[in-house]
Amino acid sequence: MTSLKTFQVPERISQTALVGRIAALDDGVTRRVVAIVGAPGSGKSTLAEGLEQALNASEPGRATVLPMDGFHYDDAVLRQMNRLPWKGAPDTFDVGGFRSALMRLRAADENPVAVPVFDRALEISRGSARLIPPEARLILAEGNYLLLDEAPWSQLAGMFDLTVMIDVPEDELRRRLTQRWVHFGLDDAAIAHKLDGNDLPNGRRMRDHSRPADLTIVQGEG
Can you give the CATH number for the domain in which 19 is found? Predict the structure, then answer.
């Protein structure tokens, strides 16, 4: 007898309601990690920063953001790999380093955890550029591939207490990403490569090959 595979249907939620769901994870002692996932240009950073501000309104310092972008390989490494033009693809990140940081954070000892920070203006990651203090109990990890069901990203399965996917139509992603690269001074040819050679294909890969999230925020809802 053939068994049918059942798929989790993510619950839709507004940003306002999401603050309450994350706050409910906090027991005052245990550190919790929330994954916020979406395609390039979906607004992950903006959402994570808004959640951080809202969660810290009642108790400053209990929530902090951990961006996946800090774990980009350096441009020199990407040149050696012949992957610099595709920076931002799944294979251009230090997944093991990200997992190690999550493991240290989940251990929740009395020591701060140093994490890298991506400087978008310089297009480089600065190692150990920020300390996450022990009093930060809600870690808002945000990035494209945190739920990607492909090695080595699949090693992150089970590392999160709650997962959230941002759902944005591709035409809106294209508009936002075009504005981003115009802002950073790219010419038309470079923008075309960024969009159709890298960003949008990466977004489709994330959408089609990620594990289902617990919750989803659909653009225009909350």
Answer: 3.40.50.300
